[in-house]
Amino acid sequence: MLVSATEMLKKAKEGHYAVGQFNINNLEWTKAILQTAQELNSPVILGVSEGAGKYMCGFETVAAMVKAMDKSLGITVPVALHLDHGTYDGCYKCIKAGFTSIMFDGSHYAIEENIEKTKELVAVAHGMGMSIEAEVGSIGGEEDGVVGMGECADPAECKQIADLGVDMLAAGIGNIHGKYPANWAGLSFETLDAIQQKTGVMPLVLHGGTGIPADMIKKAIDLGVSKINVNTECQLAFQEATRKYVEAGKDLEGKGFDPRKLLAPGVEAIKATVKEKMELFGCVGKAN
Ligand code: 13P
User: Fold this and answer.
1) pLDDT (average), residues 217-227
2) Is 84 labeled as catalytic in the residue annotation?
3) Which of 21, 29, 140, 212 is an S-S bond match for 229, by CB 3.0 to 4.6 Å?
4) Does the beta carbon of 177 sit less than 6 angstroms from any atom of ligand 1?
């Protein structure tokens, strides 16, 4: 059931668990994530970066695919179709394409401009019944060409953006997109705690969910994180399973070259990763 992310995140914040955002790249990814959410009776957010949207022939194609798949798979759990790290123009494209949620990443602008643009998009998104995420401070590393230096957010700026009426707030707390380097300093819980105290009931978003140890994830949820984004980990799981299939020569046996067979181990690996994360985030059984 396609919905905005507002209700599911409000419930997550009140219930002290987090909803997973899993980024999609194609039909296999989308199906694997939707089926796992349904099986586990969990709410879920499908994240679409601007690069992945382009790869899938544009946001209209993505919205049409997700809507049709949601219907034909008989998905009853709440599903939000969400733009990940959207530009100002990208947000308007997704509003038009029929997404149910957007992220406007204005973190690279001066705070005044981030506020101005976020404010405008909050009004437009809410007018369409959509939810909106904003960002303060930046997420380190690179995702689909979006590069961040990873500076921690200023709690006072977080409050200014939260007060604009966004539905969820991403704040840099030392998190990084992609794999964490061996010398990573870990999440800044001091920053997270200060942001949570300033922003109160606002559901906070933890980007860069790949490779964050379970104890840190749990502590982040305790300190007010209600949405956790995972992208790279599903890609790595898919790649590893596909590599094993090919290295074992299975693509050369019988009709092992059939794409439905060739991609099946990777799809199962995505499902296993999504299940593991949903269990860790505490959102299993929270669909109703
Ligand atoms: P990872 O690729 O590190 O899991 O980050 C995902 C993310 O934050 C999407 O915005």
Assistant:
1) 98
2) yes
3) 21
4) yes
Q: What is the Å distance from ligand 1's center to 251 Cα?
A: 31
Degrees to nearest 5, angle at CA 137 with 94 and 42:
55
Of the candidates 30, 16, 37, the one whose C-alpha atom is nearest the C-alpha of residue 61 is 30
Q: Per-domain residue ranges for the chain? A: 6-232
Residue 133, beta-bridge partner list: 103, 168
Question: What is the model's pLDDT at position 144?
Answer: 75
pTM of the predicted protein model: 0.97
* Strands 225-230 and 204-206, sheet pairing: parallel
Structure tokens at 253: 């046996």
Catalytic-labelled residue, pool 84, 105, 154, 167? 84
- Residues 164/134, Cβ–Cβ less than 8 Å: yes
8 A C-beta contact, residue 89 and residue 107: no
How confident is residue 232, by pLDDT bands cut at 50, 70 and 90? very high
CB 98 within 8 A of CB 62: no
Task: Provide mean pLDDT across the span 30-55.
Answer: 98
List the alpha helices (DSSP H) in 98-249.
111-127, 155-162, 189-199, 214-222, 232-247
Q: How confident is the model at residue 63 (pLDDT cuts 50, 70, 90)?
A: very high
> From the CA of 147, how far away is ligand 1's center (Å)?
12
Query: What CATH number matches the domain at 6-232, 3.80.10.10, 3.40.50.1000, 3.30.70.20, 3.20.20.70?
Result: 3.20.20.70
- Other residues' Cβ atoms within 10 Å of the Cβ of residue 60: 16
**How high does pLDDT run on average in the chain?**
96
CB 1 within 8 A of CB 42: no
The pLDDT score that the predictor gives to residue 277 is 98
Selection from 143, 130, 144 nearest residue 97 by Cα:
130
DSSP annotation of 140 reads: B
